[in-house]
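From the shared-data thread, chain only:
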Amino acid sequence: MYSNCLFEAIKAKIKDPKNVQIIYLPSRLNVYKGCHFMWTNKSSGEDVLFEFIYPADNKKHNRFLFKGNIVKTSRERFQRAVNAKLNRLAREIEQKYDITINQAEFERDKIGSIFDEIKNETELE
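Structure, as tokens:
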């Protein structure tokens, strides 16, 4: 079947508008070139994502319409892939700007205390 991921996500949404949710994946978080669209279907009862992808032997995936298949991906696998991509982007930022990103610094309670300190400093001025 010739199509693309956006068309297939829209078709799924038209078939079941109440239960289908479309997920946009920007190109910076995508393993494919360009942005990507996936969808979930609450009525299926499974915690999976559906996507339209090209087979590994298809070298013409950069076209607007290409021959591909609809596949199921577990939400856990999707989250691991996005987290891995985010970690790579964080490392690139660390190297580019010569900084260290520490995830512990971004805990909710610490962020609140950091903002309180900044607020107090600005009030003193």
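Residues 104-112, 118-125 have pLDDT under 50 and may be disordered.
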